[in-house]
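dumping this here so i dont lose it
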């Protein structure tokens, strides 16, 4: 899959996700954010809030093993909780350390 980033940037919303049923996982996905100058998020936790909810309902199971098939790739373990929320876990990569200063 080689999406045209300029066409994706014309779509509504901040980003675009694609997903399909997986073979070695419950689902596979990719996430693109050209409006935020991120051609592809390697492993997008926030996108899997929606992706996991969709596949949980589609497959009829509360726990989903997802694989994001970007160049770097990564596995996410997603669980839909009884309160309508989800829990996502997996390996993470630190990309920045920041400090927020609020003047009062």
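and the seq i came up w/
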């Amino acid at each position: 899959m080689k999406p045209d980033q300029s066409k994706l940037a014309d779509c509504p919303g901040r980003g675009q996700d694609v997903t399909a049923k997986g073979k070695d996982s419950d689902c596979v996905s990719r996430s693109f954010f050209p409006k935020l100058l991120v051609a592809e998020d390697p492993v997008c936790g926030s996108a899997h809030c929606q992706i996991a909810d969709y596949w949980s309902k589609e497959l009829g199971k509360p726990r989903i093993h997802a694989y994001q098939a970007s160049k770097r790739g990564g596995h996410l373990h997603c669980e839909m909780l009884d309160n309508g929320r989800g829990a996502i876990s997996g390996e993470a990569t630190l990309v920045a350390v920041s400090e927020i200063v609020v003047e009062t």
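The mean pLDDT is 93.
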